Amino acid sequence: MNEEVILETRGVSMEFSGVRVLHSVDVKFTRGKIYGIVGENGAGKSTLMKIVSGFLQPVEGEIFVYGKKTTLNPLKAKELGIILIPQELNLVDTLRVYENIFLGNEMKSRFLFLDKKKMIEESKRLVKRFGLNISPLQFVYRLSPAQKQLIEIVKAVSKSARLLIMDEPTSALSEREVKNLFNLIRRMKEEGITVIFISHRLKEVKEIADEIIVLRDGRKVYEGRASGLTEKEIAQLMIGRHLSEMYPEKSIPKGEIVLKVENFFSADGSVKNVSFDLRKGEILGFYGLVGSGRTELMETLVGIRRKSAGRVTLHGAEVNITSPDEAKKLGIVYLPEDRKTAGIVPILEVYKNITLMNLEKYSRFLLKKDLEIEAFRRYKEKFSIVSRGPYQLVKTLSGGNQQKVVISKLVDTGARIFIFDEPTRGVDVNAKHQIYHIIRNLIDEFDATFIVVSSELPEIIGISNRVVVMRNGEVAGIVEGEGLNEKNLIYLATGVSEEG
Ligand SMILES: Nc1ncnc2c1ncn2[C@@H]1O[C@H](COP(=O)(O)OP(=O)(O)O)[C@@H](O)[C@H]1O
Ligand SMILES: [Mg+2]
To answer: Which ligand has the nearest atom to the CA of 218?
Structure first.
């Protein structure tokens, strides 16, 4: 079959201040295909995309557009139909939605007046096509980050693209919005548009892409059909090591039982007759299907939900925890599953998010702001939080860094028993790796003990000393050692074995 190549790079290399960030990259994009580009943070994805859209000039290599060697600049790229939606949003807050959509692309009427009416009409049509409920007359500063992202996409689509590049377009979007976006991408594909989709969410890439290109440390390490690789294989290519190296060596628990839970029930019936014990210095995993009661159990343990029966013994003494505050005072803290609603206060600064649970520690008559800033610096260093400074708003951090902020906040309480619910959900592979090491370091440094709830089999197997499997609110089994494998976990979680 004769495939029309839209754009091709040959031997493209890039440097910033003498540091090479792309090494002789050859990629080829053909008409009407969807390409997924994946790689860890810093792999060079955005840089490569800026080069193919003319925003950066490579230090070496050539670019061919429709088979013709071309030196690109942003204007020329745009004329050729190469449109980049950059990772950093570029809307002008003080302009209205329709003005942003047509910025630099204004429609002129006869006598060269801007045709405002036509632009508003056209914006309406485009916004609707994407199923959005945003007025073209709305000012951009009033939009949510997700809406801004979607308007960026609308803006790009309005420019008759032939090669449309989306750099991490879904990071601010909800599941529903991602679905809408994917429908739009598929429609564009049918119209013969080539789409490059960058995301660190491998599931999304697998779902939407025809072809996958993996970058690692500035090198192309894989290209091929998306259907030819599992998510796990893609992740392995991205990090260039086996996933077993993803996880730190397992700790050796001290044996001493720090927490014992017996015949524990929640008042709402979601948790039934649960018993387990937790040994100092271990990671006790909790696995189960959605709705198996894992989160409900943790919420009941820390007093978010009411318990109706059962005995909880902490360091040998029976306790009755009826609120997260009491749990905290007893040295047990909970990292919730949904960081956005329960873990962070997005509109507060990073340092405030860290000290939030411990204000008494930072106040003596007056809030000691210096102490708070000092705490920020300590945790930034300790957990490698990437933040411009204490005053950056938490909502503008990456998922992985937001999670590190929540972990800092919990560690700052002085607690030594940590309950982490899906701690690596929505963070990139690199940040996952770091979070596993943070957990391990807390165990080594403070004799901390962890309960980790996870739906990811490789993760729960990779980090846990033992795993409690839940099904329908009850403990279906507890596995360790040789028994800690995928087959057993799936069997216990579903009640169905492979053999039937
Ligand atoms: N403008 C720049 N100046 C200096 N270094 C940069 C610049 N842009 C990117 N880099 C560096 O280039 C490498 C690749 O970055 P990037 O292309 O943004 O990666 P990705 O998009 O895959 O996360 C990183 O090490 C990054 O720090
Ligand atoms: Mg990037």
So the answer is: 1
Q: Where in the chain do CATH 3.40.50.300 domains reside?
A: 5-242, 246-494
Q: Is residue 381 classed as helix, strand or coil in its secondary structure?
A: helix
Residue with tokens 């800033």: 373
Phi-psi label, residue 433: left if phi above 0, alpha if psi -120 to 50, beta otherwise: alpha
Q: Using one digit for the tens of pLDDT, what is the confidence trace for 133-151?
A: 889 999 998 888 778 888 8
What distance in Å separates the CA atoms of residue 101 and residue 440, rounded to the nearest whole number? 48
Displacement of CA 92 from its chain's centroid (Å): 26
Q: Which listed ligand is nearest to 21 at the C-alpha? A: 1
> Ligand 1 in contact with 39 (CB < 6 A)?
yes
Question: Considering only CA atoms, which residue is closest to atom 8 of ligand 1?
Answer: 47
Three-state DSSP string of 216-284: ECCEEEEEEEHHHCCHHHHHHHHHCCCHHHHCCCCCCCCCCEEEEEEEEEECCCCCCCEEEEEECCCEE
As assigned by CATH, the class of the 246-494 domain is alpha beta
* Residue in this structure with the two tokens 């839209």, named with its chain if needed: 6
Tell me what pLDDT residue 219 has. Answer: 94
Strand order in the sheet with 474-480: 332-335, 417-421, 449-453, 283-288, 466-471, 474-480
Residue 38: name the closest of 201, 219, 208, 163 by CA.
Answer: 201
* Nearest of 41, 432, 31, 372 to residue 217 by alpha carbon: 41
Reported as a single tens digit per residue, the pLDDT across 311-350 is 999 999 999 999 999 999 999 999 998 766 667 888 889 9
Q: Whose CA is nearest to atom 18 of ligand 1?
A: 46
Contact between residue 146 and residue 172 where contact means Cβ atoms under 8 Å apart = yes
The CATH fold assigned to 5-242 is Rossmann fold (3.40.50)
Partners of 194 in beta bridges: 163
- Structure tokens given for 327: 């749990």
Contact predicate 289/495, CB 8 Å: no
Average pLDDT, the chain: 89
Q: Residue 199: CB within 6 Å of ligand 1?
A: no
Q: Which of 286, 292, 253 lies closest to 272, judged by CA?
A: 292
Interatomic CA distance for residues 175 and 18, integer angstroms: 40
Helix, strand, or coil (residue 308): strand
Determine whether the shortest distance from the Cβ of 285 to ligand 1 is under 6 A: no
